[in-house]
Write a structure and sequence with these properties.
single chain; 207 residues; alpha+beta; Immunoglobulin-like; four-stranded antiparallel sheet; 36% helix; 26% strand
Length: 207
């Protein structure tokens, strides 16, 4: 029995040695990624030439005499807000409009270079003109009455007083009306003069 067990163990061990051994496949190395292609250079757009003004255009500079701006209208269409400068084609009607909807009709501009100056209502001067017109008008009426009565009745004192009162009141009325007219909004078109300041060149009007 001991010999039989030895033979069985030896036979089993020999069978294990005779069994073919299968080799494990090796791990494949990952292939290297191809380099990304370089981006193609983007062509920059060619600079567009500046638009040329229409023949016969006016180089106009629009300014305001106060801190309140004016809106420039060409044929009732907004173009810019003061201060600004642009070329106005011929036969384009120019209007200035304030923020409180005051319209100043400038009209058609002459050829060349001009400065369009817009003035807003001067409240103080306008109020003073109204007061002056009221009192000087009353004085003129009083002077005319005194002159007519005094001179017609041979009252020299009344006649002279009427002449003096009427004369002074007439002058006051004229000046008051001028003050009111100078205070109302208005637009002026002035010839422009070229000027050079440092590295800038422009146009200026007579203010």
């Amino acid at each position: 029995m001991p010999k039989l067990g030895t033979v069985v163990v030896a036979t089993t061990f020999a069978g294990l040695l005779a069994r073919p051994v299968h080799a494990q496949p090796g791990m494949e190395q990952p292939a290297e990624a191809a380099p990304a292609p370089a981006p193609e250079p983007v062509a920059e757009p060619a600079p567009q030439p500046a638009p040329q003004p229409a023949p016969g255009s006016t180089q106009a500079t629009f300014v305001s005499t106060s801190s309140q701006p004016w809106e420039v209208l060409l044929d009732r269409h907004p173009a810019c807000e003061t201060p600004c400068s642009l070329y106005v084609p011929p036969m384009r009607f120019v209007t200035l409009r304030s923020r409180d909807r005051v319209l100043l009709e400038v009209g058609y501009l002459p050829q060349g270079s001009v400065v369009v100056r817009g003035s807003h209502l001067a409240d103080g001067a306008y109020a003073g003109g109204i007061v002056g017109t009221t009192f000087s008008g009353m004085g003129l009426a009083t002077g005319i009455t005194l002159t007519a009565v005094g001179c017609a009745t041979d009252r020299s004192v009344m006649c002279k007083a009427g002449l003096i009162t009427g004369g002074v009141s007439a002058v006051g009325l004229y000046l008051s009306i001028r003050l009111m007219l100078s205070a109302v909004p208005r637009a002026e078109v002035l010839p422009a003069r070229p000027y050079v300041a440092g590295n800038s060149v422009g146009f200026a009007g007579t203010f």
